[in-house]
Structure formats: structure tokens, C-alpha cells
Amino acid sequence: MTAGERVVVEPLPDLIVEPIVRLALAEDLGRAGDITSAACIPAEARLGLAFVARKPGVLAGLACARLAVAALDPGARFESRKQDGEAVAAGETIAVVDGGARALLAAERTALNLMGRLSGIATLTAAYVSRAAGTRARIIDTRKTTPGLRALEKHAVRCGGGANHRFGLDDAILIKDNHVAACGGVAEALRRVRAHAGHMVKVEVEVDSLAQLREALEEKPDVIMLDNFALADLREAAALVRGRVVLEASGGVDLDTVGDIARTGVDLISVGALTHSAPVLDIGLDAV
Amino acid sequence: MTAGERVVVEPLPDLIVEPIVRLALAEDLGRAGDITSAACIPAEARLGLAFVARKPGVLAGLACARLAVAALDPGARFESRKQDGEAVAAGETIAVVDGGARALLAAERTALNLMGRLSGIATLTAAYVSRAAGTRARIIDTRKTTPGLRALEKHAVRCGGGANHRFGLDDAILIKDNHVAACGGVAEALRRVRAHAGHMVKVEVEVDSLAQLREALEEKPDVIMLDNFALADLREAAALVRGRVVLEASGGVDLDTVGDIARTGVDLISVGALTHSAPVLDIGLDAV
Amino acid sequence: MTAGERVVVEPLPDLIVEPIVRLALAEDLGRAGDITSAACIPAEARLGLAFVARKPGVLAGLACARLAVAALDPGARFESRKQDGEAVAAGETIAVVDGGARALLAAERTALNLMGRLSGIATLTAAYVSRAAGTRARIIDTRKTTPGLRALEKHAVRCGGGANHRFGLDDAILIKDNHVAACGGVAEALRRVRAHAGHMVKVEVEVDSLAQLREALEEKPDVIMLDNFALADLREAAALVRGRVVLEASGGVDLDTVGDIARTGVDLISVGALTHSAPVLDIGLDAV
Amino acid sequence: MTAGERVVVEPLPDLIVEPIVRLALAEDLGRAGDITSAACIPAEARLGLAFVARKPGVLAGLACARLAVAALDPGARFESRKQDGEAVAAGETIAVVDGGARALLAAERTALNLMGRLSGIATLTAAYVSRAAGTRARIIDTRKTTPGLRALEKHAVRCGGGANHRFGLDDAILIKDNHVAACGGVAEALRRVRAHAGHMVKVEVEVDSLAQLREALEEKPDVIMLDNFALADLREAAALVRGRVVLEASGGVDLDTVGDIARTGVDLISVGALTHSAPVLDIGLDAV
Amino acid sequence: MTAGERVVVEPLPDLIVEPIVRLALAEDLGRAGDITSAACIPAEARLGLAFVARKPGVLAGLACARLAVAALDPGARFESRKQDGEAVAAGETIAVVDGGARALLAAERTALNLMGRLSGIATLTAAYVSRAAGTRARIIDTRKTTPGLRALEKHAVRCGGGANHRFGLDDAILIKDNHVAACGGVAEALRRVRAHAGHMVKVEVEVDSLAQLREALEEKPDVIMLDNFALADLREAAALVRGRVVLEASGGVDLDTVGDIARTGVDLISVGALTHSAPVLDIGLDAV
Amino acid sequence: MTAGERVVVEPLPDLIVEPIVRLALAEDLGRAGDITSAACIPAEARLGLAFVARKPGVLAGLACARLAVAALDPGARFESRKQDGEAVAAGETIAVVDGGARALLAAERTALNLMGRLSGIATLTAAYVSRAAGTRARIIDTRKTTPGLRALEKHAVRCGGGANHRFGLDDAILIKDNHVAACGGVAEALRRVRAHAGHMVKVEVEVDSLAQLREALEEKPDVIMLDNFALADLREAAALVRGRVVLEASGGVDLDTVGDIARTGVDLISVGALTHSAPVLDIGLDAV
Fold it and tell me: How many Cβ atoms sit within 10 Å of the Cβ of residue F8?
């Protein structure tokens, strides 16, 4: 994505975001609050600040900044110039805020920690997405998220143009190698699951060979994950399946390999690094 | 650090770690729990698993894995083979665990998410520390941590041989550019702070030039942060101060520059990337 | 179901159940605890009690009773004689418990409130299930559950032989009349959803006529809900669809009508009353 | 009660109701929020809706609906047409609401689940109350309430014209059969309690025979519960006591028997079914 | 009370005490835990310590000490030598504990803060009680307790031989001057309350003159509070009432005046100072 | 301080204060709310009240009163006439409030409990401070605070003109006798701590003799606590140290001794009684 482009993403309800922001503020304020500003800054001082991108990237988490400011100064004015899912160039202003100086300085780190981290995820996701452009493959995340931030981080993946895998252990079925081993085979695992799964629950199974893929296909899962397949095997798998089942490539994916994987014809490429290893997007807060 | 070397680090109390682990488990289990294992794995099945490093690195967060397992199967046996602060080679076993199969599979992702993330921080810290070896400079963290995980991430920095900057806005004073601007100068800011700060609170001030450094020195802060100083200026600052005040270099630090910065004679080098951009350490959970 | 028959149901993790039990105990103990037992019963007195079904029914929620007792007397012995999903006759013993008299009497109401309510749901579900016996139709629940108890109540539906509809607004898509109206038609709503939904999310749409059903079928949703269809229309819908899509009958379902509805050939019959109007199963706690 | 009649009931403070409403919304929104509306409904769309009674009944819990809407759209307009404690006919509008379409649709189920459940309790209570009309007997609830909802459900009982028994184990003393057994008799239990109870705590004792009633009377408790007494025995008890002590009839009460019980002259009739087995009042949310 | 005497007091359930203890520990441990012990004390060091009274007093809150130790070292041995409600001499050992040195030192302040504060309340209560000895008057507390600690502080009052007034705004009715003013008189206030109060709720009214007392008596409240009555008026009130209603003297009570007040014949003397101004009992933790 | 004098104190963020206030309100409202006002006071009645000092003192905690009122009536008007840190005479008005009568009466006790307790601490602190006037000695608090209220109580100490010792076990190092014993001496303890402590953490050590003081001085801690030193020894210590290290006198401090101790030349005098034994400041709420 280049600056100005935008992925349209629906916002999370504040009811989900606000408790996380307040927890982060409480963690930072501790037992005595911001003792530096209390010592240096008059209580009545006001400040105008701008959130500015220091590096190019894709934004996610503006609501975190807005809610952090509102939690410490309900009367502050927060004006977004960009939106979640929007690409920015270095130096562009993301939002401007005007309010009590102490409140803004106390909210700064929480706002930046959250928005920077989430924008980092969106930016990395967009990089993967761009390398898969022109193919049918979508970039998806995993459950390798930061404890406590899963809802926000999966939102950030969407901001980068990616899509979401399941949100937890409870909302979809994913049969992995340990399950297959416990059941004595892919087909038996799928049969057990079929008998147990609700009608609103999708079923995916992980396979590690073309033979297992063929066995899985017989049982008609919704999705099959091809774990650590070589490119040639991915291609053969895609040819074999021809759209009857959704195919997810997993394992060994990085920015160098994702393009080739995408061109094998798989539907989905899951990338744990989107959430577990994305560097932060550098955003600063400047006086205006 | 090479495999087998170890930074001795005191553990955090479980009282601090356990609520974070339980929150992470609850986030993953959602409203219905692990529906895959419930469908595939008999309730009475047991499993023996090993946490194994897939890449070399420095460990942090073993307590998270132990507590995640215990939260879902209080009777499981968890045996550590390595300790926080210890360097491991790829393929080495970190811990073995034996317990109910469903509980272990449900705890797996939470355990790995936390231990992998914290070990990633420890590993990156160790890399910075090794490049500063032979100098007086210590590598320190910042407040650029993950919301909700600050205590754990700062522990991980110690595991990698780094040290901690302040833990929040309330436990030490750090006068930044906005504060200086509001007070009309470094010296005035330090005087205001001196009148306000308790006797158990250290005071640091950020300066962005040698002139400001000289002004700051007059007021005898405990620590002076040299923000984005060129190497030559860092050297001049260290020569000027000659140990009278602790000097912290900040800004523009990466693995390529940290060695040169360390050799300027500063006491501390703060690196936000330790906690905001460390890639996860790849750890897996294998059947034994 | 008759006494002794059993639906095999996987238990929820204690991590999900225990916080609910502790909240209920805290609500009942208030600020001063059980002042009656404190006044009447010596601190060292012990008691042996049996949970006994006063009416026939299907059990759910034994874990609640076990955890309520353990929360107040960690050393008490709790021995289940029956299991969740098992049908009992009036007078049968469900579990016996032995522990501190004050603790047991204080846990009694919480244990019975939860187990009675959940067993009431299981019992009512089993009644619906039995009337649909011999057909392809499964009895499913809705989101009309008690706030705070959804995980437990959906577990209770499974204990009665029913299956679960979605668990929340976030784990599956259900397009209702308001959504259709906002989109200007069933087909457009399904197209918008298709573009938005993740690959692990199933999609259901509500239709209120055979014409809408035909329109919906074109877009291949996973499930179609037939809202308040007459029996003849349900039959025609089932004939029309012939298994290509899962069909859910909804609205106007009670114990008198459910059999006829089941025989129309639909796959699912959703019954809000399972969780919003099930009378409690009468269970008592008797001295042994 | 017939439509338009009203029991005047004082509202609970929002401070008690709001946390329950927010917990229920969080349970329903899960980790991703309302994914259906996010896919179908434009973010800026607005909606006007009416809460409408589908069946006649007595209302309770309007504050839950108001607070659910406000939690998701603080700017929404919520206008009550009826009040808690008011009887409505089928088809009558209870409240109208105007606000963001996504917020209203996401709040709908929480609002209806709470208001429907509480109105169901009020409606059932009113039915019992009407059958006891013309007697001195008041209909009262028990501690057989839904865990987490006791404050709301006891409020609903008042909305139906009933009164409340104690709210927990800590605010009044109720000596039951197990306590009597542990003390070796009703009189001894009352003496022990008398020595222990504070001056602001009322004392009730359960008796299961006229002989025990006479023994209890000697010790002057505030209330005596006649447990499972035959009608003739209730009458004899009332004649014997002649207003000196409050008499509560308990056990075997249903809508068929409550009138006869009320005419025996007892002061109170406690009915567990008010809160443990009341069917929901059917309320819908219609476009306006 | 002299050392060795004991008021028999029933313990609070751990379920009520433990959350308070854990909150206090978390407040003290903060984000980094006990950094002094981590630096000085080897992880494996063990310690034997004794809780010792430095001044004579009456004990309350031993459970807090036991639970604080157990929360940080579940394997520690805690052995009580005294009990809640027992009078101790200066120098007497209250309990001995043996466990991990770091855990014990970290738990020390929380244990002492709670036990010292509660024992201070018990000790002050006992002083008031002893001055009222030989009269019918009981010493009672008020709602002037520490926010968050009401259950514990009212328990401490019982440990000192006092009794409890109501526990909150919800468990008993107390008509105060503002209510009387709003109703236009004591009698009208009592009539309104009578119509509203449940059968398990006691009713008290505050009066400030003998005339108001006579007006109140007509309405037969359970308790009448004589607010700031002179001694002669208290005597006249007691003579007038002759045991028909419980009389509570309130206002202007201190250790010098309580004896004379008790001898006027009132039943209860309420003392806010028991909980709002009791000095701590000095307890130390010594090596053994 | 005399009425009208004022210590300028920076307010705590509402984010820290509000959760404590809401917890206190919830504790007081219980499960049924204020049943007296519900029975006596019309729902629409309004009230104008004034918080009035009944005794002279120094104020702290006005924010608690403001937030308690706002929590129950967001539309109430709260107007402060005095500020935290300001001395008031008996009879002076602190704040006036105008709002719903039921809300104000329900908030009254919580507001007064918090403001009275905190003002009591400020008042006692001011008394100590005045006796040390004209010396270099500052009066400081300890960790002997009320569990859950540490942030508020340490703020109250500042309102009285005192200063704060550390806020928890984690924000500064204080080596006590047990640590010294475990290390085998003051010097060794300081060396271990020096190796472990971060650069933003101050180090204090407790000594109990002039010999230990000399040993400690060698290791250059930031602060030395002189525990239970006689006046002559305090004087000698101050002479010996001559400002090189901050000296804290501790133990045996009361209002009679504090002046003499202050005149020995120590820098700090710590007084546990400030927070563990301060009597409440009597504040009332009067109709206006």
C-alpha cells in the first residue's frame, strides 16, 4: 500500500477496546500517577499535540489513542486526520489533540504503545498482502497473539488487508497433529469431530503429506491446512483439490517465500509473525 | 551468550504472574473451551510433552508455562530442565510436562505465546548486551512495553542481561522535552522537581545538546539522558561528566550502532526495541 | 430419556466454571457470611449430605456443586454417583458430600441453584429431543440465555441431547430481518457478508418466505433459518433444498408442535425456551 | 393485574444494574463484536426501534434495556412509555429507542434477555398475588435466584406486587431443619441464635409440625416458617398464633394451591418458582 | 479484658477474607515485587518468625496473616498460638510461621497492616465494653468503616465484645433526620417505611427529643436511636420505654462518658470511633 | 497550620481515585440499595447539602466526595469551597452539593468515610510538621497504610505538609534488620544490593548503632535509617554524616518527641502513626 490507500475496516466497539486502554493506563500510572508532570507542569496548563508517523506504514488502533486521552481528560478534543487501515507516509499527521497538559503527557505512552504496536502489525500484514497480490491467496493470522490483546491484534491484521483465522479454541475446530495421533488417523479424527461439532462451527484439519490430504478430502472438512509443504507439493495439492475445499498453507512463510507460495494456488497463507514478531511502527507525539 | 551460559535472575512472585496467565487462558478458551480436543481426545487420555527450543536464544517466562499447565491440570507434573536467563541451543529441551492430554493441549498456545515472547525479548537483549561487552555501558529498557505485560517484559530484559529503566510514571522522575519547554529550561525544570520529589525518588533529565548538558549538570540530577547525540558528542559528554552523574544514551540505537555508542563511555544505553520490536523466540511443544 | 440413559458430554474446564461459582457464593455470603450457621453450628461439626433428585430429569452442572463445596471447604470429599447428561429417577442420589457442616450449609443454595437450573435446561431439552426422535432434526438453542451463564447453559443443552447455535455475536454470522432490510434484500446481504466473513466463520440467513428462500439459495449460505414457516411451507422448503443447505426451523416451537416440525425434513429446530423458560429441576440436599 | 395497572416500585441504583448489563454485553460481543452488523450495516446508519410486548404481562427491568443501549451508543435516545411494575397488553409499546443501527442491533439480545426474564418473574409474581387477593397473605420470594442476578430478580418480584425474603445468608437468620438437628431442638436453636444475633437482624425458624410451632412460639422469633403444612394445620397454626408472630407458609405452593393457602390466615407465602421457574415474558424489538 | 480472656467469635469464611488479602499484597508488590529481598536473600533461604504483641490488646485478623503468608508461600507452616477475640499481654507470641524467607518478608507488612488495624479496633471496643460492664448496654459499631474493609472491621468489633449495627444501606432501615424532614415527621416516616419494608428487615428511627421519642413509640419501630441526648434525657427515655423497644444512645460517646451513658438504662451505645479512629495495635514480627 | 493556610498539593488522577470510590459505594449499597430512602424519599426530590467541618483540621480527599456524588447522580452540582491541603476552622463549609435527594443520601457515608479518614491523616501530619518547623527535618510516612488505600493515604500525608517514603516493595530498596542478618552485615547487604539495583532505584539501609552507621557510610547508600536511636546518638550521627547521606530517624516518634528529634539535625522523621492511627476528622453533611 502507498500513502493514502486504505483498507476499509469496521471498528471494534469501544466496549471491547476501553477496558484494555484503562488497564494500560493504570499499569503506567501506578500508585502515585505521573509524578514528573505533577512537579513540572501547572495543573491548568493546556497543550496541543499531533500524533505523527515517523516512518511509513499502515495505521491501526486510533481508537486506543482517542480512548487513552478521553480517560484522563474527558474534555479533551481528539481529531483524527487518518483512519484505521489507511497507509501513511513518514511525517504525516495521524491525529491532533488538545487538552490538559498533564493528562496528555500521562496518556502519551499508553496511546503510542498501543497504536504503534497495532500499526506495526498492520504494516507487516500489508507487506505480506502486497507480495501475494494478483493471486487468490489471502494472508491470515494465527492464535500467536499477545495475551490480552487478541481482539485488537486481529483487528490490526484486518487493517493491513489480511483476514482472521479463528479467535480462540472455542469458535472453530482445528485438528492438529497431536489430535490426529490421538485418534489414529486424519479420517477418524474428522469423523469424531463431525459427530461433535455444532452446525455453526467450521472444521479444519492439518495434514503433512499429500497422502494425508487425500485421506482428509474424503471426509469433506471445510478447510485443510498444508503444514510445511514444499512448493511443488502445494502446487500438486491445489491441482488435486481444485477449489472443492479451502486450502491453507502454513509454515516456513516469510516475506521472501510468501510470493511463491501464493502462486501455488492455495487459498490462504497463515503467518504467525504478523502478530508475534511485527516490529512497532514508529509514531511520535509532537507539539503543534 | 552461548548455550549453557546463564544470567542469574530472581523470579517474579507467582502472585504477579498468575493473573496474567489466567487472563490469557480465559481469552483463548472463550465461552466453550477447546472444542477440538473435546471432540477428538478422550477425557482420560494423558500426554507427555517437551518444550523444545527450535532456535538458539535466551529463556524467559518458564513460570508462565508452568502456571498455564497448572491452571488447567493442577495435578500435572512440570519439570524444568532450563531456567530463566539461560541460553539454549536449537533443539534443546526446556521443560517436560506430563498430564491430562486435553489440559496440556489447551494450555499449549498460552504457554508458548508468553514464553516465546518473553524469551524473544531476552534473546534480543542478550544480543545488545554482547555488543556492549567490555565497556561500562549497560543495556536498559524503556516504558515501550506491551500493555498488561510490563512486569513480565522487564523481567525478560533482566534475563537477557539488561537492566530496567523506571517501571511507570510514578516510581521515578524523567524530565522530557515537553517538561523542559513548559518550565522554560532544564535548570528550572530540575529545580521544580527537586522541590517536589520524595527522598526515595531518583531524578533524570533529558538533554539534546552539550549546552543543555552543562546546564543540567549544575542542578545535580541523578541521571542525564543524552537524546539522539552524535557519537562525538556522546564522547565529549562522557569526558565532561567523568562519572559525576550517570549518563544514558538514547535514540538511534540498533544492533549495528550499539557497540560504538557503548565505547563512548556512557553508562547506560536505552533501547525501546527490546520490548516493542523483539521477534518471538521459536519454541515448540513436542510429544515425548 | 429414562433413568440410567446418558448423553455423553464433554465437561467444561473448571477455569470457566469456577469464577461463576465463586461469584454466586460471594453474592450469597454478602458482607457477614452465613450468620445462621455461625450462631447454631459448632465450628468443628461435620456433616454428610446427599444431593438427591426429587423429580425425574436429566442432570447438568455437577461441577458447579463440586466447586461450590470445594470453595468453602477445600478438604471436603465430593463423590459423584451420576454424571452430567445422565437421566435420573425421582429419589436417586446424584452425589454425596462429606465436610465441615458450616461450609456445606453455606454452599448448599449456590450448588442447588446452579445444578437445578442447568438440569432443568437439560431436562427440557431432552423432552424436545425425544419428540423429534426418528427424524433428522436436531434440537438447538439460541442466544436467549441468562446473562453471565451462557457457557454453562449451552453446556446444559448438550447434556439434554441438544446442540448449540452460535455462542455470541462474534463467532458466526446470522443475517436477520433488520440486516436484510438495511441491505435491500437477502441476496445483497449475503454478498456483503461473503466479502467480509473470515474463512472459519459460517453464515446463516433468516428468510420468511419460500421466495426469500429461493433467493438465498442462490448465494449458497451454510445455513438458512426458516422463520415462522407453516408446516406445509417447511415441507416444501425441505423438498426444495434437498440437503444442499442446512435448514433451521425457528419460531412457534413448543412441545406440542416440535414433533410435526421435525417430520417436515428440516435439519435443525431452534428453541429459545430451552434456556429462557425451563423450569428448574427439583434437587434437594439430604442428611445421610 | 390488567394492562395499565401499576405496582409502584422504587428503582435500583444504576450503580448496581450497570455492571450486570456490561458483563452481559461483553459475554455476547466476545472477542470480535457483532460481525454480522459490521458486514451488513453501514457504520453511519441509524435506526428507530420499539420494544413491544408480544404477550400480556407485568414489566420489570426497563433500566437494563436503557443501560444496554447507552453502553453501546451513549448518544442514543431511549424513551420509556411504560414503567417497571406496570401491566401491559400484548402489542403495547414499552419503550422507543433511536440511535446507531449497529449499536442497537448489538444491544438488542442483552436488553431483551434481561428485560424478558425479569418481566417474566414480575408476571408470574402478579399471578400469584392476584390469587391471594383479599387475604392478609403476601407473596414472597426465596434465595432460589439466578447466580449473579439476585438484586435484579428480587426487584422483579417487587414489580409483580410481591415482597422479598432475605437477600443472602448474611442479612437475616433463618433456622432450618439442619440447624435444628444440630442444636437438638427448635428452642435450643432459637436460644443460641438469640445470643448471637445483632439487634438489626430478624430471626426466623422453620417448623414442620404444630408441636414444633408451639415450642418455637415460646422463644418469640420474629417469623416462623411452616414447612409443608397441610391446609388444616396451616389454619390451626394461624388460629393458635393470632398475629403474635409472622407466619410464613412454604412448600407445595403453586398457582392452584396458593389461594387456599392464603385463606388459612398465614401472613406470607414463599414461592421459589417466582425466580427459579418463571417463563420469560415475550418482548420483541420492532422497527418503527 | 485481661490477657488470656477471650470473646468467642465465629470466623469469617476465607472466601470473604482472601480477596482483600490478595489485593493488599498486590498493592504492596507492585510491578516488580520485593526488590530488596530479591537482591539480598537467597531464593532458597528459609526463615522462622513469630508474630508478637508489643502492647497488650485484643486480637482480630489472624486469618489475614495466615492467608497473606499462604498466598506467597503455599507450603509455609503457620501455627496460631492465640485466637481472634483473645486478649494478649505485651510480649506474648500470637503465631509462629516457618517458610521461604523472601515470601515471609514480602507478606510481613500486609499481614501486620491488617492484623494490627483489626486488633486495634478489637482493643478499643473491649475498652468501651469494659466501661459498660454491669449494665444492660451493649457497645455497637456504625457504618463509619474503612472502604473495602467493612466485613473485617465489623468482625473485629465482635472480637472486642461489641456487636454490629447494620452492614450497609440495604440490610436494615435507619430513618435519620433528613428522612424525617423529607416526610414531615417521625410518625409519617415510620408509616411510609412500614408499608415498604420486607418482613425480614428491622426498622430503626433516630429521634432528637423526648417528644419525638413519644411520637416514634406510637408506631412501634424495632429500635429507636436517641441522638445526642443528655444523660437525664436518656434516663427518662429508658424509664418511659421500659423495654418495649430497643433503645440506642448515639453521639458524644467517648471512653470518659460511655460508663455514665450505659448506666442510664439504654440497650445499645453506638460508637463510630471503634472503626474510624482506633489506633493500631502494635504487633511485630521477630526472628525465632 | 491555621485556617486558611494551604499546602499546595497536586491532585491524583480520577482514574486512580474513582475505582476506590465505586468499590466503597458498592460495599455500602449491597444487593438492594438504600432501602430507607427508597421508602421515605420521593424519587424526584432534590436536596442541597453542605459538607461542613465540625472540628478544625487539614483537608484531604475532596475528590472522593465529588466522585461519590457523581457516581450516583451524574447530574448533581458539586462545588468546592476549600481544597485539598487547606486548613479549615470548625464550622467552615468545605463544599456544597445539589442533586437528587436519594443519591446524595446514599453517597453521604462513602463520601464522609473517605474524606474524613484522609483529612484525619492530613491533620495529624500537619501537627507533626508544625512541631518540626524551623528544622531541616521533613515528616514522612511509611508503608503502614490501609490495604487498598495506599495511594490516597500517601496523598493525604502530602496534604498535611509531609512527604512520602516508598510506595511499595518494588519502587525503592530498604534494607532492614532481617536482610542485614541474612547477608551477614550491613556492608555486605549494601554490596549485594548495589549489584542488583537499577539505576533509577534509590537504596536505603536501616542501622541500629553508630558502629553500623559508620559501616554503612562506607558503601554510600542514598539514605540511612537510624532505628530507635537515642537523641544523643541521633545528634552524633548527624554530626558524623554532615549531609553526605540523607538521614532518617525512625521509631519512638510521637507528638511529644518529634520536636527534639527534629532538632538533632536529621533530614527525615518517619511516622507510622500518620496512616495507621490517625483519628478521623469530624466532617458533617448539613442541609442548606
Answer: 12
| Unique residue bearing C-alpha cell 535509617 | F225
Q: Which chains touch A (3+ CB pairs under 8 A)? A: B, C, D, E, F
pLDDT for B38-92, tens place per residue? 999 999 999 999 999 999 999 999 999 999 999 999 999 999 999 999 999 999 9
> Rounded to an integer, what distance in angstroms lies between the CA atom of residue A121 and that of residue A123?
5
| CA B156 distance to own-chain centroid | 4
Q: pLDDT tens, F44-83?
A: 999 999 999 999 999 999 999 999 999 999 999 999 999 9
Which DSSP symbol is given to C280?
A: P
C86 - beta bridge partners? C6
Which chains have at least 3 CB atom pairs separated by less than 8 Å from chain F?
Answer: A, B, C, D, E
Any residues with CB less than 8 A from the CB of D250 and at least 6 apart, and which?
D206, D225, D226, D227, D228, D269, D270
Distance to chain F for C118, nearest Cα, Å: 24
In angstroms, rounded to a whole number, what is the distance separating the alpha carbons of residues B38 and B102?
A: 7
**How far away is chain C from the Cα of E20, in angstroms, using its nearest Cα?**
12
d(CA C84, CA C10): 9
Comparing CA positions, the residue from A194, A202, A255 lying closest to residue A224 is: A202
In this prediction, residue B77 carries a pLDDT of 98
Instruction: Compute the nearest-CA separation of C208 from chain B (Å).
Output: 30
Q: Determine the straight-line distance between the first and last CA of chain B, rounded to whole angstroms.
A: 28
| Whole-Å CA distances, B194 to A155, A283, B188, D225, D285 | 44, 31, 10, 70, 62
Q: How many of the other CB atoms lie within 10 Å of CB of A243?
A: 10
- Cβ–Cβ < 8 Å for C113, C24: yes
Model confidence at A119, in pLDDT bands (50, 70, 90)?
Answer: very high
What is the value of pTM for the model shown? Answer: 0.97
Model confidence over F76-89: pLDDT tens digits? 999 999 999 999 99
User: What's the confidence (pLDDT) of residue A165?
Assistant: 98
Nearest to residue E24, comparing CAs of F146, F157, B14?
F146
Q: Is the pLDDT of residue A265 over 90?
A: yes
Q: What's the mean per-residue pLDDT of chain E?
A: 97
* Cross-chain residue pair F15–A26, CB shorter than 8 Å: yes
| B71 has a chain C CB within 8 A of its CB | yes
Q: How far apart are CA F2 and CA F126, in angstroms?
A: 10
Q: What is the pLDDT of residues B257-276, one digit of tens each?
A: 999 999 999 999 999 999 99
Helical packing angle, F231-241 and F210-218, nearest 10°: 20
- pLDDT tens sequence across B106-130: 999 999 999 999 999 999 999 999 9
Do F224 and F213 meet the contact criterion of CB atoms below 8 Å apart? yes
The partner residues of B51 in beta bridges, in order of sequence, read B95, B285
pLDDT digits (tens, 9 = 90+) for E99-110: 999 999 999 999
The distance of Cα D236 from the centroid of its chain, to the nearest Å, equals 30
Asked if the C-beta of B234 comes within 8 angstroms of chain A's C-beta atoms, the answer is: no
Cβ-based burial of B218 (10 A; exposed 0-12, middle 13-18, buried ≥19):
exposed
What is the C-alpha to C-alpha distance for residues C269 and C105, in angstroms, rounded to an integer?
Answer: 41
| pLDDT bracket for residue B225 (50, 70, 90) | very high
Contact C167 B32 (CB under 8 A): yes
Residue whose C-alpha cell reads 500517577 in the numeric block:
A33
Look at residue C2 in the predicted model and tell me its pLDDT.
86
Q: What is the mean pLDDT of residues C137-147?
A: 98
Q: Ramachandran region of residue E61, left (φ > 0), alpha (ψ -120 to 50) or beta?
A: left
Burial degree of A48 (CB within 10 A; 0-12, 13-18, 19+): middle
Total beta-carbon pairs less than 8 A apart between chain C and chain E: 34
CA separation for the pair E17, E94 (Å, rounded) = 19
Task: Please state the ipTM of this predicted complex.
Answer: 0.96
F227 is catalytic: yes
